[in-house]
Amino acid sequence: MPPFLKALLAQLAGTAVAYGSARAGLLPAGLMPVVAMQAVAAAGTASLLRSASWWRWIHLGFAPLVIGALSLGITPAWYLAAFVVCALVYWSSFRTQVPLYLSNRLTAEAVAGLLPQGRPAMLLDLGSGTGALLRPLARLRPDCRLEGLESAPAPYALSRLLSRRQPNVSLARGDFWKIPWTDYDVVYAFLSPVPMAAVWKKACAEMRPGSLLVSNSFPVPGVEPERVVEVGDRRRTQLYCYLPAGHGLSGKMRNTGR
Fold first, then answer.
1. Are 67 and 35 in contact, with CB atoms under 8 Å apart?
2. 41 FRET partner, CA 20 to 30 A, in 50, 93, 109, 210?
3. Given this model, what pLDDT does residue 94 score?
């Protein structure tokens, strides 16, 4: 079950339990006992559904925060505006479980060192965000063609604006799952743990011999990287490097006991 459906089910179950408990006279009088029961029941349901642990904290705080916000008397238009802004920035993150991560300058320098030397190369940035990787990389390797795909409207628009004077950067709004990765020397991903198995499967099926898959921070589950690059920034970024061409999905899989 997708996480957002689990979250919706948990909230509905929490509301049903709180309502039923209040109707049956099992709760003290007043609003706060009902809110507390809803929060605890929602968190408990999330646990039963095996949601990620941080979802339980969200469920515990959701109803109390809603009640608190309503007590402030804020004009509803502000909530709508906040929702629109979040939607434009994060777009389909609720479905893909891939938030907006920004690569830093030191990471761009490390990726520049992974590109083929002495000849032009092509790189694809999966979910390129605001272009935080591609802009410094374009200055470091002006001979290379750098392409990015981003689905969220706001980061995409900002990336187009900021990279408008860099002719070797090409940006498009779309779904990187729907395009072939055949033509690229390097495919760069800074996503989340959730899609990495699918990324590896597509890379094995489509990337040509000698091409490189680079994942920032999130290794492919059950697959040994060819190399791990330590970036040396404050967040101790690691770049996991894979050569997917020629490997089946079982060729380099470790026994994970699952």
1. yes
2. 93
3. 59
Q: 71: number of CA atoms within 13 Å, CB side?
A: 8
Q: 25-33 contacts: CB < 8 A, separation 24 or more?
A: 31/67
Which residue, among 188, 247, 185, has the nearest Cα to 215 in the 3D structure?
188
Residue 46 CB coordination number (10 Å): 27
Q: What is the dihedral of CA 44, 47, 51, 53, to 10 degrees?
A: 100
Q: How many residues does the chain have?
A: 258
Strand 186-189 vs strand 122-126: parallel, antiparallel, or unpaired? parallel
In sequence order, what are the residues at sequence separation of 6 or more whose Cβ sits closer than 8 angstroms to the Cβ of residue 227?
241
Burial of 122 (0-12, 13-18, 19+ CB in 10 A): middle
HSE-CB at 157 with a 13 A cutoff on CA atoms is 5
For residue 43, give the 3-state DSSP assignment: helix
- CA-nearest of 10, 62, 57, 19 to 37 is 19
Type of residue found at 84? V
Q: What average pLDDT does range 163-174 have in this prediction?
A: 94
